[in-house]
């Protein structure tokens, strides 16, 4: 029932204290407005409206208080016309080096080809998340240095990929997000 809202973070993943992220929401809706919620409470941040039913909420200078599940509501007065799934904002210091994301055979591939992603961190035994901008959650979970093969790619896999790694010690330690990599499918 009703329209659905898609939601994602830009940049994705875990952010450091003092860092920033943008919650991006889109909806094939009209006559209403977007409101951002965190853990069920309204966040007093006004969206930047991009037209075409898209809005961006900037969250900057974050602290641990800003962590939690965010979702977008599309409202008309007091009536909620649609709400998104939650997207998780995690806030942690970065203690690990930046990982490197690579793709084979390259940034441009022909539709139907296989591509292999690899996220490499200068630490053993790390887990990594592969992100594709526009996805609400991680695109794929990887082990450090592991090949992830995507078979028979099509236009739907085009976009901006990045990865981020973590090591479970006494606590979770995080890396920054890698440099982004644009995949084009011809």
TrEMBL record:
<dbReference type="InterPro" id="IPR036179">
    <property type="entry name" value="Ig-like_dom_sf"/>
</dbReference>
<dbReference type="InterPro" id="IPR050412">
    <property type="entry name" value="Ig-like_Receptors_ImmuneReg"/>
</dbReference>
<feature type="domain" description="Ig-like">
    <location>
        <begin position="3"/>
        <end position="88"/>
    </location>
</feature>
<dbReference type="InterPro" id="IPR007110">
    <property type="entry name" value="Ig-like_dom"/>
</dbReference>
<protein>
    <submittedName>
        <fullName>IGSF1 protein</fullName>
    </submittedName>
</protein>
<keyword id="KW-1015">Disulfide bond</keyword>
<dbReference type="InterPro" id="IPR003599">
    <property type="entry name" value="Ig_sub"/>
</dbReference>
<dbReference type="GO" id="GO:0002764">
    <property type="term" value="P:immune response-regulating signaling pathway"/>
</dbReference>
<dbReference type="InterPro" id="IPR013783">
    <property type="entry name" value="Ig-like_fold"/>
</dbReference>
């Amino acid at each position: 029932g009703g329209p659905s809202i898609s939601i994602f973070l830009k940049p994705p993943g875990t952010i450091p204290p003092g860092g920033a992220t943008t919650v991006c929401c889109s909806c094939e809706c009209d006559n209403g407005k977007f409101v951002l919620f965190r853990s069920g409470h309204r966040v007093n941040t006004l969206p930047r409206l991009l037209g075409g039913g898209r809005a961006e909420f900037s969250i900057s200078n974050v602290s641990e208080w800003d962590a939690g599940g965010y979702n977008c509501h599309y409202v008309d007065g007091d009536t909620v016309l649609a709400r998104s799934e939650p997207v998780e904002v995690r806030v942690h210091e970065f203690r690990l080096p930046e990982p490197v994301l690579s793709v084979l055979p390259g940034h441009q591939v022909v539709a139907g080809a296989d591509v292999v992603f690899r996220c490499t961190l200068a630490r053993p035994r790390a887990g990594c998340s592969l992100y594709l901008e526009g996805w609400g959650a991680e695109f794929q979970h990887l082990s450090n240095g592991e090949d992830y093969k995507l078979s028979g790619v099509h236009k739907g896999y085009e976009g901006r990929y990045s990865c981020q790694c973590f090591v479970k010690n006494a606590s979770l330690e995080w890396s920054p997000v890698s440099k982004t990599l644009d995949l084009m499918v011809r």
